[in-house]
Amino acid sequence: HLQATTTLSNGVRMPWFGLGVYKVEEGQEVEFAVRTAIKHGYRSIDTAAIYQNEEGVGRSIRQGLEEAGIGRDELFVTSKVWNADLGYESALAAYDTSLKKLGLESLDLYLIHWPVKGKFKEAWRALETLYKEGRVKAIGVSNFHVHHLEELLRDAEIVPMVNQVEFHPRLSQKELRQYCQDKGIQFEAWSPLMQGQLLNDPVLEEIAGRHGKSVAQVILRWDLQNGVVTIPKSINENRIVENASIYDFELSGEEMARIDGLNLDQRVGPDPDNFN
Ligand code: NAD
């Protein structure tokens, strides 16, 4: 079930579930996390140029694929162009740099990391070029509010296939999710566990207890039942396994509604309107 996929607007299949490697150190730490995840059936890895671990991610992908006896085409790899590289030429160059560090011939998904004012449209033209030239399977954005998407779509040739944003029970992004759904943009959650801040929530604890599951599993299951791609981070083998064990139970409509009710429009990361 870990290999279950959503089909993006261009027909490319993306796993619903993957591993995020933000703040995972280059070297042994990231290599262990990625290899362990692949060993336990993960088929999607989310990194970014700014995480400064693409080389280790690349090495561990090669090892992990070999150990699992699977091909590159069975793994979905995402990276992101950083804010400093949001010009047309610089975004193209940033893509080549990421490929080189990862040691890959192409990425499955390349994202604009943040909607830096006055810059993201030029970068989008570069991603469109990469896509049209067949150098990347899918392109998308990250941290885009509705107004950023509207501005982008005014001139875009290609509608982003994905929008990856902060999403968890305290920030449920109802309007943005609906907008993305209407435009055929797959919604993807970052910091789905609110970086650990939700693990003592009494409502989530109660629901978890009922199912004999952990709070992390309940949250990640809520993502899937909402049609949201999710990429929790862990560098701990037990948690890597735990986070992926979410296909053997189902939240009821009432439980989904109670979790929806936890929204406080509260962020752990910056508001995209004030970040560049
Ligand atoms: P997260 O919500 O995935 O939380 C990760 C933290 O939760 C871990 O460090 C660990 O302390 C804890 N944790 C994980 N599994 C647990 C478990 N089973 N039980 C208890 N604690 C557990 O936070 P994140 O890393 O910020 O987000 C996930 C991924 O999203 C990142 O690694 C990155 O790939 C991506 N991301 C993207 C952006 C963006 O701007 N596009 C920003 C932040 C993160």
Automatic annotation (TrEMBL):
InterPro entries: AKR, AKR5G, Aldo/ket_reductase_CS, NAD(P)_OxRdtase_dom_sf, NADP_OxRdtase_dom. The record marks 80 as: Lowers pKa of active site Tyr. GO terms for molecular function: oxidoreductase activity, acting on the CH-OH group of donors, NAD or NADP as acceptor. Substrate binds at residue 113. Residues 28-263 form the NADP-dependent oxidoreductase domain. Pfam families: Aldo_ket_red. The keyword NADP applies. SUPFAM superfamilies: NAD(P)-linked oxidoreductase. The active site is at 51 (proton donor). Keywords: NADP, Oxidoreductase. Belongs to the aldo/keto reductase family. PANTHER family: 2,5-DIKETO-D-GLUCONIC ACID REDUCTASE, NADP-DEPENDENT OXIDOREDUCTASE DOMAIN-CONTAINING PROTEIN. This is Aldo/keto reductase.
